[in-house]
Specification:
The protein is α/β, with parallel strands linked by helices and about 200 residues long. Helix content is about 20%, strand content about 20%. Helix 3 runs parallel beside helix 4. The protein is globular, with a radius of gyration of 16 Å.
Length: about 200
């Protein structure tokens, strides 16, 4: 078991992000053996879950004429318009059935406000509205984080960068992540994480 001040954050290992899902990440389900093994090694374990209402503004089909993966301007900045995914209560929003969810101490649901997306486990995309995860980790005495999950270049990277900004020591287990890689986004995200002092393993 890892030291008591370490936590594992597993990002969005949900059906819609795995092969066959609405926003599938290539080989997204290939991370499950490593993620499940890691869940047995950390004293504090948190799962995050995308949990969108049907009218979510990040869905391309809620913008007439907009193409999936195009970018639009929101009040909080540029927003990728995604295929409809992880609608709360749907099969796609459920965790992958092979994920050992019983090992988790907490599940953080994000993206449930219709007017703002939430990539990070810590903040909505305005970078200021908190999810509550920071307070939970502080209350557990956590100082160091290991991140894994989907997708490397979006929700994992945003979570890692916010965690460093909040003062946590952060590492990302790249073997237990997979990326979407929109127009070089995977390499760019890894560069940003390294520049921020995040250890990429």
């Amino acid at each position: 078991m890892r030291p008591d001040d370490e936590a594992l954050i597993v990002i969005d290992v949900q059906n819609d992000f795995c092969p066959g899902g609405a926003l599938a990440v290539a080989e997204g389900d290939a991370i499950l053996p490593e993620v499940n093994a890691m869940l047995g090694q950390y004293p504090v374990r948190v799962l995050t879950q995308d949990w969108h209402p049907a009218d979510h503004t990040s869905f391309a089909d809620n913008h007439p004429g907009a193409a999936p993966f195009s970018v639009t301007a929101m009040a909080y900045g540029p927003q990728v318009l995604w295929p409809r995914h992880c609608v709360r209560g749907s099969a796609g929003a459920a965790f992958h059935p092979a994920l050992k969810t019983d090992a988790a101490d907490m599940v953080i649901r994000k993206g449930f406000r219709s007017q703002i997306d939430s990539y990070s486990a810590f903040f909505e995309n305005d970078r200021s509205t908190p999810t509550g995860l920071e307070g939970y980790l502080r209350g557990r005495g956590v100082r160091r984080l290991m991140l894994a999950g989907l997708a490397t270049d979006f929700c994992v990277a945003y979570s890692a960068l916010d965690a460093v900004r909040l003062g946590f020591e952060v590492a990302v287990r790249l073997g237990a992540c997979r990326g979407i890689d929109l127009d070089g986004s995977l390499e760019a995200a890894c560069d940003r994480m390294r520049a921020a002092g995040i250890l990429l393993l």
